[in-house]
Automatic annotation (TrEMBL):
Organism: Leeia aquatica
UniProt cross-references to Gene3D superfamilies, sorted A to Z: 3.30.530.20
Protein name per UniProt: DUF1857 family protein
InterPro entries in the cross-refs: AtaL, START-like_dom_sf
Lineage: superkingdom: Bacteria
UniProt xrefs under Pfam families: AtaL
Transmembrane spans: none
């Protein structure tokens, strides 16, 4: 299944909303990779297996489900998650890319590719599953941006979060 959507970061019509800079948004996306428990409350444990300037390898524990992934950082523009397939998990990928079409506005494009069947098939069940998964991804992504905004408001993003 391929799924992609955009989230607008700064709403210029809402003066009550904290306006994020590109650097703050990037630091938040990096923080999501390095501190996944802050962004995924269902996560029981997370272990960074290796780390470099280009990314990291992680092991995530959701109860008895263990997921291993590789996270790659691309020039303060994108974070790529490549999840290994295993007996417990089908694998897949997620890319979070910062876009600024006019140089001022900020968006994050979330792109998922998973082995789940697309919702374009004949199976009514496949359509239901794909629709449910897409809605869950969208809600998780909205929550990610909300949590980044909270970290910025609480001044809890540090320059060390910038890769």
């Amino acid at each position: 299944m391929h799924f992609e959507h955009l989230i607008e970061i700064n709403d210029r019509d809402n003066s009550l909303s904290v306006q994020l800079t590109h650097a703050q948004l990037w630091a938040g996306l990096v923080r999501r990779a390095t501190d996944p428990q802050h962004f995924m409350p269902q996560l029981d444990a997370a272990h960074i297996l290796s780390r470099s300037e280009q990314g990291l390898r992680r092991e995530l524990h959701f109860g008895s489900l263990v997921v291993r992934d590789e996270v790659r950082f691309e020039s303060r523009q994108a974070v790529h998650y490549l999840t290994e397939a295993s007996e417990q998990h089908g694998g897949g990928s997620l890319t979070m890319r910062i876009e600024s079409p006019d140089g001022e506005s900020l968006f994050v494009r979330f792109t998922y590719d998973t082995p789940l069947p697309d919702d374009s098939g004949d199976s009514g069940e496949a359509v239901k599953v794909a629709s449910y998964v897409k809605a869950a991804y969208r809600e998780a992504d909205i929550d990610t941006i909300r949590l980044i905004r909270e970290l910025v408001e609480d001044q809890k993003l540090e320059s060390g979060d910038l890769h």
